[in-house]
Hints:
A: mainly beta; four-stranded antiparallel beta sheet; 0% helix; B: 117 residues; six-stranded mixed beta sheet; globular
Amino acid sequence: xxGVTQSPTHLIKTRGQQVTLRCSSQSGHNTVSWYQQALGxxxxxxxxxxxxxxNGRGNFPPxxxxxxxxxxxxxxxxxxxxxxxxxxxxxxSSFAGGRGQETQYFGPGTRLLVL
Amino acid sequence: AQxxxxxxxxxxxxxxxxxTLSCTYDTSESDYYLFxxxxxxxxxxxxxxxxxxxxxxxxxxxxxxxxFQKAAKSFSLKISDSQLGDAAMYFCAYRRGPTSxxxxxxxxxxxxxxxxx
Lengths: 115, 117
C-alpha cells in the first residue's frame, strides 16, 4: 500500500509569485485535505476535496485554491505569495465512507519559504 | 466553534519511565473523534491513537493509551516505557462526527516531548 506523497519537499519563492504544491493520496482514499503549519504551531485547515469538489474551507483567502483529479491526487495553488505564507504545507488523505473511515493519513509535507 | 488546547509546551521523561500529555477540547457536539499524532523532526505526522467519543472504553495501542473523560472534555495520552524514538512533537486533534460534512481536523498547539537517556 502506497502512502501519501508530496512534492516538492522544499521550495523557495519571492513575494508576489505563485506556487503549486502536489499531493498523491494513499491508495483507496477519496478525500484530500490541506493544512498549513507555521513554525511552532499546530496545522491549520485550508480546505478539503472530496470527489473532485471542494468540501469545506478554513479561514484562508481566495488566493489559496486547489484541485482534485480523478485519481484523487490534488494540487494546492497559492497566488500573490506573502511572507506569512512561509510554512510547512501538509496534505492528508482519507476515505469518506462512514464510521471507521475518518482517520487522515499525512504526507511528509512541503516546506515553503517566501523571501 | 471547536477548540483544542494543549497546555504543556514541553515535557521531559526518563527513558523507560511513563509520561502523560494533556489535552482539553471544547465542543457542543456529542459525536466526534479525537486523535493523537506524533511529528518527529522528519515532519511527517504519524497517527498514534484515536478515540471515538461514543465509545466509553479508553483506546490503547501497545505502549500508548488515553484517558478520555467526555464530561470533562479531556483527552490525555499516556506513554509507558518511554523510548528514545518517542521524542517528537505530539499534537492532539479533534474531528466532528460522520454526519457533520467536512472532515477537517482541529489541532492543538502541540507538546514537545524529550526523552532522556
